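Subject: sequence -> structure tokens, single chain

Hey, anyone have a minute? Need the predicted structure for the following. Not urgent.
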Amino acid sequence: MPYPSISDYKKAVKYLNNRTSNLTNLISIRNDSSGPIGSAGSFATVFQVEDNQTKKKYALKCFTRENSERKERYEKISKFLQNINNKYFCEYQFLDNEIVITPSGSGKEELYPILKMEWIEGETLGSYLKDKSNSGKYQDLEILYKNWLELAKEIYKLGIAHGDLKHDNMIINSYGEIKLIDYDGMFVPALFGKNSVEEGSPNYQHPKRNSKIFDTRIDIFSFIIIAISIKAISLNNKLLNQFSNDENIIFVKDDFVNLKNSQIYNELTKLANNEINNLLIDLEKSLNDINYVPTFLDIQLNKLKKDLDEAKQQINKLEQEIKDCDNLAKDLLQKSNNCTSNNQNLRNDLDKANQQINQLEQELTHCSDLVTNLSQQLNNFKLNGSNLQNHFNQATQEINQLENKKKELTNLLNSCTSNNQNLRNDLNQANQKINQLEKEIKDSDNLANQFRTELKDCQSNNKNIQNDLDQANQQINKLKQDLKDSDNLANQFRTELKDCQSNNQNLQNNNDKLKFSLFLIVGLIFMFILFSLNKNDNNNEISDRLLNRANNSVIRLNDELVTTKNELSKVNNLLDKSMTKLTNCQSQTKKLKNQLAQCE
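Reply:
Had a minute. Here:
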């Protein structure tokens, strides 16, 4: 079925509500010349339309070329986007057999598919970058950069890929929010195992990308390129005017051949920005390994690293607190030991004083006769006793204070010990969490190894399939040669058949000539007999000789006739055999053609 031209679609879209099966509320938006507003691409044209009830605008994509997989791909993409309802994608619906068109020259109306998409108001990424950089609104570019990283993480986490990320396939609104458009090359999980229908703009795609690579990897390189471009322009707007054209932002495909020797790489390193430098490292690793996932996309690994860093910080904090508590405990223990030592010294002094008092009292009892002489000494001793009592009372108070201080220190020590135990419990929990995180990292590595093994198996299967395909091609070539030989043999049989038919015709003509000659001789014999009856008896001998000659001629002609018949019979047998061989050859040729069709 031929597909309509752009002019055919313009005629139909001009009166759209009368030409569609389901979209009867839509009307075309026309320009000054009363024609519908649209833009043409390589295999489709897009028109701007409006719902005459809701006044909501849409874009209708009408196709100008046939694609056998179009319906399946668009329906699976449409179903996936409807289920996720993601803010980065617009409303999207594929409608088969929807619009009635009469292609030029056909004179017959046919139903054709269309793609209905939400019309997004805003600027393309290329236009937005120019406006913001020229007006010096670098803060808006910084917001756009952060939004772009969030978009990249979200799309990668969903396990899908746009397939053709570039400056004019995304719309930026006044708030810096991003909407992706043009989903023709999009990958969703339902399309796993198929090849990509397009390979994207070379200024944004990995040099090693091909149609067989069709999964979440196809967007990773574009994520890095666009992230570097936005961040670099937010730091130096001159880069856009220096390196941009209608097909790129600041990178071109030639830069990916030898990145470090490219001019744009040298300009980016001059910015001396850590984030740019990290993205350039990601770009280098991605060029060397198409399966590389940059750090800003590896969400699980980043989360594990973040949790691990937080756990390490918590452990360091706990270790410092434990160390402080240990130091405090040591100080308290030292003070407690010092107090205990002082307390023991005071007790020793008290014991000595008590012993001295006892000794003095004994001397006072036994030396009563020396009272007078010793009264002064006694007073002195009493005075000393009073002083000692004061010292004793003071020592007792100090001992009580030291006991209270000891209790306080003991309580504080117990509290520190409890805190120390709690900190140790927290440390054990942190260690358990670290072990869990390490196990998750190990599981992630095992999963990655499993994916690599499956990839190797797929590559091995592809190689086996390629070998089978080569063998099938060899068999097809052999069948084609056999078919050619059969055709040659059939042509040879046809030639022999024609020769046999020609010989048969010649023999038939000879047979007719012999029959004619036989009839002629028989007639002559009868005439001769009649003539002889009118002659006299003298001529009987001549008549007998002539009659014998005639008989011999008849016999000879009969023999030639029999020989001709035998040869004719042989020719007919040969003709039958040739016909049989030709029939067998035609049957074999038909069989070979069927085998060839099955192989192809």
